[in-house]
Design brief:
By secondary structure, the protein is of the alpha/beta class. The chain has a domain at 76-103 and 202-379: Rossmann fold. The protein has 11 helices and 13 strands. The strands form 3 sheets. It has a 6-stranded mixed sheet with strand order 4-5-13-10-11-12, with helices on both faces. The protein has a 4-stranded parallel sheet with strand order 8-7-6-9, with helices on both faces. It has a 3-stranded antiparallel sheet with strand order 2-1-3, with no helix packed on it. α2 (105-118) packs across α6 (204-218), α6 (204-218) crosses α7 and α8 crosses α9. The longest helix has 15 residues, at 177-191. The radius of gyration is 19 Å and the shape is globular. It binds pyridoxal-5'-phosphate and zinc ion (ZN). Pyridoxal-5'-phosphate is lined by residues 103, 105, 129-132, 198, 230-236, 296-297, 343, 345, 373-374.
């Protein structure tokens, strides 16, 4: 293989890290970021119709074929009636339900499994709130790499069924994703399987960047005023922010471009990031007894806490929460108002957006992109 066109550095202390066996920063244990030479503006994007179209910005060697199932290039659907209902000038739904296995998690797994396969791992293990496990099962099958998934037994049935249908070994656990993480790490240590947990390896977030590239390109190479992201572990939000930083740094967007304001949407029953943001903290305390039917948001102690809080601080962003009842009602509004098969996470985002407009945090002339991160079908047992 040719020389790697990227290197790894700590996202916090900037210490360099080896590519081989990369996990978190060896000195401060924060997530590692891939860094690249700037991609000159106007460089041809790849001639393919999936997220690897943005290959010049992604961890792919020149002679390498990614593990791909047609992820990304999802529609950005304008929703004028919903915009009027919540009180913003323009609102688009980035519909991530249209990915393989029905969520944005496909993007991260396409990138991370590509790197894990290149490293020759004997198998891959993941702790998941649900959708990441289904995505890994699919990409493991595509790569011919064995997969083991640790998921809460309360994960919606269609998601658990998908994991097994793709041939992965599913361990249903009595607990949340944090408990699953401890079990996955123990299994990785004893088996030699590679643990591919959120932000504990550097490449899932690289796949997530493609959501940022896409919304910018779909809007005509400009950024919206606000990005609303239903956030659990943080790789989606952090990925979009990293992408837009890279577009500005390499001159694809004018140097004076301001990042969108990031609105981190969480469930009231598991809101460690929103609570820490309200307290002005730099890191989040674990959320005791996390409960929400928006399964992807049930992440009580995300490793990305410091990064997420930094993203909000640096972009004049903010966080909000939605009750279970509000999530249900706004999920229905999102689906009925647009025809998008809204997941509860998307409904949470819409609820938080509406509240932020109602209490004046978002101006009525704002242009907003809301992520529907998953598929409603995955939650209909
Ligand atoms: C549908 C859905 N939305 C949102 C999230 C949270 O995403 P992130 O971990 O990138 O914050 C998840 C995570 O599992 C998810 O499955
Ligand atoms: Zn560090």
């Amino acid at each position: 293989m040719s020389v790697s066109p990227w290197s790894l550095r700590c996202s916090s202390c900037h210490a360099p890290a080896a590519l081989e066996g990369a996990s978190v920063c060896p000195s401060c244990h924060q997530p590692l970021f891939a860094t690249y030479e700037p991609v000159p503006a106007g460089t041809a994007l790849a001639g393919r119709w999936d997220m690897w179209r943005y290959a010049p910005f992604l961890p792919l060697a020149a002679d390498e074929t990614p593990v791909s199932l047609g992820e990304g290039l999802t529609p950005l659907i304008e929703a004028p009636a919903l915009a009027a209902q919540v009180g913003v000038r323009r609102l688009w739904i980035k519909d991530e339900s249209q990915n393989p296995t029905g969520s944005f998690k496909a993007r991260g797994m396409s990138a991370a499994v590509t790197r894990a396969r290149a490293a020759g791992v004997p198998g891959i293990v993941v702790p998941t709130a649900g959708n990441a496990g289904a995505a890994l099962a699919a990409y493991g099958a595509a790569a011919g790499v064995p997969v083991r998934v640790y998921a809460p037994a309360t994960t919606p049935r269609p998601i658990l069924d998908t994991i097994e249908a793709m041939g992965a070994e599913l361990i249903r656990i009595d607990g949340h994703i944090g408990d699953a993480g401890r079990m996955a790490n123990a299994f990785a240590a004893e088996s030699g399987y590679f643990a591919i947990s959120t932000l504990r390896e550097p490449y899932r977030v690289e796949g997530m960047k493609t959501m940022g590239f896409e919304i910018v390109e779909q809007l005509g190479w400009r950024v919206p005023d606000v990005v609303v992201y239903p956030t659990g572990g943080g790789e989606g939000t952090v990925g979009i922010w990293k992408a837009i930083n890279e577009l500005v740094a390499s001159g694809w967007l004018p140097g004076e471009t301001r990042q969108p304001r990031y609105l981190v949407a969480q469930a009231a029953g598991c809101a460690p990031i929103a609570r820490a943001f309200a307290a002005g903290a730099e890191k989040a305390d674990p959320w005791v007894d996390p409960v929400t039917h928006a399964a992807g948001l049930r992440v009580p102690s995300p490793l990305g806490d410091r990064l997420l809080l930094r993203v909000m601080r640096e972009t004049d962003g903010f966080a909000g929460t939605a009750t279970e009842e509000a999530i249900r009602s706004w999920t229905r509004t999102l689906a009925v108002g647009t025809g998008v098969d809204a997941a509860p996470e998307g409904g949470c985002g819409l609820s938080v957006l509406r509240d932020a407009v109602a209490d004046g945090q978002i101006a009525g002339d704002a242009e907003v992109v809301l992520f529907n991160t998953g598929s409603g079908a995955s939650y209909r047992a």
